[in-house]
Structures are given as C-alpha cells and as structure tokens.
Amino acid sequence: MPRLRGTERFIGWGTVWFWACSLSCLLGQTSYVVTQTETSDPPNLFPTLISQTNYLPGSPAIVFQTQTAPANVDGYQFTQWLINGQRAQDFTGESINPAPTVFTNNIAAVAQYVPVNQYTADTVVPDWYKIQYFNTLSSG
Questions:
Q1: Which of 19, 59, 68, 127 has the maximal Cβ count within 10 Å?
Q2: 27 close to 20: Cβ distance less than 8 angstroms
Q3: At a CB cut-off of 8 Å and minimum separation 6, what does 91 contact?
Q4: Residue 15 per-residue DSSP state
Q5: Which residue did the predictor score with more confidence, 99 or 17?
Q6: Are strands 62-65 and 86-87 parallel, antiparallel or unpaired?
Q7: Per-residue b/e over 70-81, b at no fewer than 16 CB within 10 Å?
C-alpha cells in the first residue's frame, strides 16, 4: 500500500500526544485556570486587569509580569507592587514597575499609591519616595 511522505512523523507525534493525554487523565493530572488580578490601593486608580491561563501541575512555571502602573494618578504617586502580599523589588531594594510574576497559583497584584504631598517622618522627603526606593517611612 502506498504511503504519503511525512505521515510517519505525524502519526508518531499523534500517538505520543494521545498517550500523554491518556496518562495525564489516568494519573488525575488536569490543568486548572490560574488567575492574576491587578488592582490599586487606594482602589480604582486604574481599571482592574484580570489575566488567566491554564496550568498543569508539575509543568514549568509560566513567567509573566504586571502591567506598568501609572506613576502618578489624581494626586497619588505609585510606590510599589505587592504580589500576594510581598513587595516586588530589585536586588538594591528598589520597587519594580512592572513587577515579575510566576503563574503557578492565583496571583493578587496590588499597586500601592500614597498622596504625592504626604510627609510622615519629616517635611523634606515625600513618603512615596521613601517607600519606592527604601521600603520605609523613616527618615534615617
């Protein structure tokens, strides 16, 4: 019987795919939807952004990032992203915008803002600057 050139490769990969899917189902491994929700604090300084993807447990992590939060909105200055409650910062301790995220579980990303003219510990350096660059409100 004549064979079409290249069909061996298609049939081979099709068979591998079928068995991989069957094995995954037999082992009870199914993918689930992972959601990243981006909001601001105070609320509504920018529209909430929701991103979703499917993730199969045990597969490589999916590297993603937040949107770039606006630096200044209605008299509020961006200070930091909190990813599931943890500050996103670089190796120097400065906050990162946009913030890297890893899709393995649901992610709550909150862009924190403070009033531009807020001074807590002194009247020289605004709070937003201290939080963004040093993660503190102290002046020393």
A1: 127
A2: no
A3: none
A4: H
A5: 99
A6: unpaired
A7: beebeebbbbbb
Q: Please state, in angstroms and as integers, the Cα–Cα distance from residue 18 to each residue in 21, 30, 78, 95, 133, following that order.
A: 5, 15, 49, 46, 52
User: What fold is seen in the domain 31-134?
Assistant: Ubiquitin-like (UB roll) (3.10.20)
Which two three-digit tokens encode residue 11? Answer: 């049939």
Q: 0.85 exceeded by the pTM?
A: no
Positive or negative CA dihedral for 78, 121, 125, 76?
positive
- For residue 16, pLDDT over 80 is answered with no
For 96, the token pair is 């990162």
Helices assigned H by DSSP within 27-76 = none
Residue with tokens 């963004």: 132
Residue 127: φ, ψ to 5° = -55, -40
Summarised one tens digit per residue, pLDDT across range 32-72 is 899 999 999 999 999 999 999 998 888 898 899 999 999 99
